[in-house]
Amino acid sequence: GSGKGGVGKTTIAVNVAIMLAQSGARVGLLDADIYGPNVPMMMGLNCLPEPNRGKIPPAEAYGVKVMSIGFLVKPGQPLIWRGPMLHSTLQQFFSEVDWGELDYLVIDLPPGTGDAQISVSQIVSVNGGVIVTLPQQVSVEDARRGVEMFKRFQPPIPVLGIIENMSYLDLGNGQTMDIFGSGGGKALAEETHTPFLGAIPIDPAIRTGSDNGVPVVVSHPESHTAKVLKQITERIASGLSVLAFLQEQHV
């Protein structure tokens, strides 16, 4: 999730889901951004398989099962819905999609702290949340609201960590440029006593991969960016494992 739009959370969700699948896990990716569904394009998908067994079959790419409202509406068609319709659609995505057995279901939330976030928290038990921010203070201020949102749900959703996206630009001469400032994500993590999961650089390969449906961890698996995303994915998986262990001990 994120407090504001334009921070690249969908790009990160897509790449994290693929990295989890590459580790051998059974992974689903739910595009909960009903008003701005970008997951199909980023995953190189444009339609769902034919229905079977009475349930909606998810699309699949890179070993990840995918569901999005983007498969069900015409390109460019706006969905001018109030909260109840959004809630009903998300409920269908959880209950009527043939997800099968999954180890992880990655949910890409829309920006903000509104209807979709509330609906997801009411429909399913969420094991953990991740907040994406840019380094700049405007983004960090909104990300702080996202952290607080997870904590205020009943029951509270543990925040697995904060990711700083578009952290810096590598100039190729051993120097970097902090286009959006520096250190905002790490400072927010320290302030909120939340793990800092990592800083992702500005990389043209991320943009081209997202536009072409070949995410950077697939198109450039040996790149520095892909390695950072792998570290972030491992930290998310580790955080979930620790939470699961603590819950078992509590029981």
How would you characterize this protein structure?
The structure is a single chain. 41% of the residues are buried. The strands form 3 sheets. The protein has a 4-stranded mixed β-sheet with strand order 2-3-1-4, with helices on one face. The chain has a 3-stranded parallel β-sheet with strand order 5-6-9, sandwiched between helices. It has a two-stranded antiparallel ribbon with strand order 7-8. The longest helix has 27 residues, at 224-250. By secondary structure, the chain is of the alpha/beta class. It has 9 helices and 9 strands. It has helices at residues 9-22, 39-42, 83-95, 115-123, 137-152, 184-191, 204-212, 216-219, 224-250, and strands at 27-31, 59-61, 64-68, 104-108, 129-133, 159-164, 169-170, 176-177, 196-199. The model has no long low-confidence stretch (mean pLDDT 94). Strand 2 and strand 3 (64-68) form a beta hairpin. Helix 1 packs across helix 9 (224-250) and helix 3 (83-95) runs parallel beside helix 4. The chain is globular, with a radius of gyration of 18 Å.
List keywords for this structure.
three-stranded parallel β-sheet; 9 helices; about 250 residues; single chain; about 40% helix; alpha/beta
Q: Percent range for helical residues?
A: 40-55%
> What's the Cα radius of gyration?
18 Å
Quickly give the structural class.
alpha/beta
Please give the alpha-carbon distance between the first and last residues: 29 Å
Count of β-strands: 9
Largest sheet: number of strands, sense, barrel closure: 4 strands, mixed
Measured by DSSP, the beta-strand proportion falls in 5-15%
Point out poorly predicted stretches: none
User: What spatial order of strands do you see in the largest sheet?
Assistant: 2-3-1-4
Approximate shape: globular
Discrete helix count: 9
Q: From N to C, what is the helix and strand string?
A: HEHEEHEHEHEEEHEHHH
Average the pLDDT over all residues and give the rounded result: 94
